[in-house]
Amino acid sequence: MKIGLFIPCYVDALYPEVGVATYKLLTSLGLDVAYPLDQTCCGQPMANAGFENMAGKIADSFDEKFAGFDYVVAPSASCTAFVKLYHPRLAKGHHECLTSKKIMDVVEFIHDVVKPSSLKARFPHVVSVHNSCHGVRELGLSSPSERNVPQFNKIIDLLRMVDGITIREPERKDECCGFGGMFSVEEPDVSTRMGEDKIARHMATGAEYITGPDSSCLMHMQGIARKENKPIKFIHVVQILAAGL
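^ thats the sequence. predicted structure below, dont judge the formating
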């Protein structure tokens, strides 16, 4: 199968190492991965800001760029969820929007499609897992803690294959960190306080690192931690899964 690698804007601009780790991880699993050089933003920032006409054109272009792949894989639960759930509405009347049916977050893809029995990674550190809102509520990377359903976490399932790692979860494990895209711009004080509370719960686990599937959430918490000199580090989950490759 042919895999189209989608690297979101903020990952490309701020965390390119996450994109590199995603490529290394997927190819180490024997997959045929290509990175379309002319790919663009998925349109989420424009749509969230109320400019859906602009986002609709980007959705059309996005679908064209990734038309020839069996799967589209991205290291971002947020952008993946936007393409999967909102591109069909933005593209309504234009085309079928096939990409929305084949895009997957990298954790979801490896867990549900590749299903490896082992990984080559080693990460001898204590990590606290951050379940991002899009991952929990829209992609099902983990079960919502408030629902009376069997509990699961695909992020933790994969991390358990990493040699030397110690995995922790914070109290209120799927409560929002306060980023929320435009929310952090429009309500910065509330957003910051939510981030502070979330960081405190992660740090209470004794973790050296906070990890998760969304660089946006990690970026938000990392900014607060640096500003307030909190002794905690941040790393995208795919960097752990690819550690040592």
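The mean pLDDT is 93.
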